[in-house]
Design goal:
Blueprint (H helix, E strand, L loop, with lengths): L8 E5 L9 H9 L4 E5 L17 H17 L4 E6 L4 H9 L3 H21 L4 E5 L7 H21 L3 E4 L7 H9 L7 E6 L7 E5 L2 H14 L4 E3 L17 H11 L3 H16 L9
Parallel strand pairs: 1-2, 2-3, 3-4, 4-5, 5-6, 6-7, 7-8
Length: about 280
């Protein structure tokens, strides 16, 4: 029988108070045993904004901060915003709006600058960036990598972590080295929707049982950090696209039943502390 009775964190999900379930999804998470959330802003166009200037990113950031405040009111712990620019924006700008890749890069980097203001001033915990998870032309790929590297530089100045949206794969050592070149420790780079055997950044493992077990074994045998996530989209038009808000608490229960108590503590207490500087235990009621 497990003795773990600590926090349960979903490291990456989305909430849309107007179009989605919003706080109702948070209540579902809490009812299942969840305690803490890291809430990422959705892509800018989900807020009916086609960005033209840096200031246009604020609509999505402000909406995320507002729903996080509501979420914290119903959680046993609390929620934190993770703000940034979705890497898919580059294709929307270049393919749909005829931006030059360099101009798209500059606009996206300006959005990172706005997100950084919210980290510096306190409401946001970390930045979000990355590169497309699908094939793009070389100039777009280079522009995307430039945005990501700029985000690493910004995070290094702020002393905060970066969550990455990127292609699938298990070897991201080059990306981790880019972060270190920018002055950001690789232990503050998180790959969202990761497998359990990621090399380079810290994996935020999607809650597939096989991937979680791989991460749990690495945590218990080699001390490797990891986090757990659903990537819940909160989009009523895509109800089964990823995983529901109950999934992390249910997978924690499964890991505990399987004897991975130390791995659960790694994912929900130790890794959040080392990556984000948050105390998930102290912030429990």
């Amino acid at each position: 029988m497990s003795e773990y009775d600590g926090p349960i964190l979903d490291d990456h999900l989305h909430l849309h108070a107007e179009r989605g379930r919003g706080v109702e999804a948070v209540e579902t998470f809490a009812d299942a045993g969840g305690t803490h959330l890291l809430v990422c802003n959705l892509p800018s166009w989900h807020y009916d904004v086609e960005v033209e200037t840096a200031a246009d990113f604020r609509a999505g950031f402000e909406a995320t901060i507002d729903v996080v405040e509501q979420a914290s009111e119903v959680l046993p712990g609390r929620a934190w915003p993770v703000l940034g620019v979705h890497p898919g924006l580059v294709s929307r700008l270049v393919d749909d709006r005829d931006f030059d890749p360099a101009d798209a890069r500059d606009l996206m980097q300006s959005g990172i600058g706005v997100a950084a203001e919210y980290v510096a001033e306190g409401p946001a915990l970390a930045l979000k960036s990355g590169r497309p998870h699908y094939d793009v032309p070389d100039p777009v790929w280079k522009a995307s990598n430039a945005v990501m590297r700029h985000t690493f530089e910004t995070a290094a100045e702020l002393g905060c972590a970066v969550q990455l949206h990127a292609e699938s794969g298990e070897d991201f050592t080059q990306v981790a080295e880019w972060a270190e070149d920018a002055g950001l420790p690789r232990g503050q780079v998180v790959k969202h929707y990761a497998s359990g055997r990621l090399e380079g950044p810290v994996p935020s493992v999607i809650c597939d049982k096989d991937e979680l077990e791989r991460a749990a074994v690495r945590a218990e045998t080699g001390g490797e950090p990891f986090l757990m996530e659903t990537d819940f989209l909160d989009d009523p038009e895509r109800p089964g696209a990823v995983m529901g808000p109950r999934t992390v608490p249910r997978r924690v229960e499964w890991l505990l039943e399987s004897g991975y108590d130390d791995a659960v503590r790694t994912a929900h207490v130790e890794t959040p502390a080392t990556v984000y500087g948050v105390d998930t235990t102290a912030t429990l009621e």
